[in-house]
Amino acid sequence: MPKKRLILASNSPRRIALLKSLGYHFEIIPHDIEECIHSNVLPTELVQNLALLKASDVASRVCDAVIISADTIVVHEKGILGKPKDVSDAKRILSILSNSEHDVITGVCVMASPSRKKMLRIERTHITMSTINDEEIDRYILTGEPMDKAGAYAIQGEGRKFIEKIDGSHSNAVGLPLEVLQEMLNHFMNDENA
Description:
Strands 1, 2, 3, 4, 5, 6 and 7 form a seven-stranded mixed β-sheet that branches. The chain has helices at residues 13-21, 43-59, 87-97, 134-142, 170-174, 178-189, and strands at residues 5-8, 27-28, 65-76, 79-81, 101-113, 118-129, 163-167. The chain has a single domain (5-189), classed as Maf protein, CATH 3.90.950. It is α/β, with parallel strands linked by helices. A hairpin with a 4-residue loop joins strand 5 and strand 6.
């Protein structure tokens, strides 16, 4: 376990549960960064930049800590699909994903404070969706689950029934790639200068 405090820069229930599954004791200090999607930036750059901004924001408010932050987006051939703005946007996003393939890309940042020493990594999971008809989309939206999720679905919830195939990290598709994060934390825990 790290000597410094371990902080998750997110109040996402999914990220909290995933980090707990690794057995770490940590604090939750949410970032104050507005997550803007810029279409003129590569998706991999976007998630890395946002993860870095989130970690930096929390690092500026704490000392003697290791901060974990992440940003996840869904990338389809039609572009980046973020969190839906409203019900009609959720319907639009799910209609796009129906009977097609997309990538879930997460940028992860681990940063030490006050040194600001950092590691940035990216993980990509390829997902194939089955055909989802309008009635299924409407029923799913009524559950409320799609409303705060990138791509308007939760792979760990009701949304899993629409998944045909997953290639890559399942935890990444939920929002925090545990395999990558564990490697990063091991590096920071073994680095006396972090």
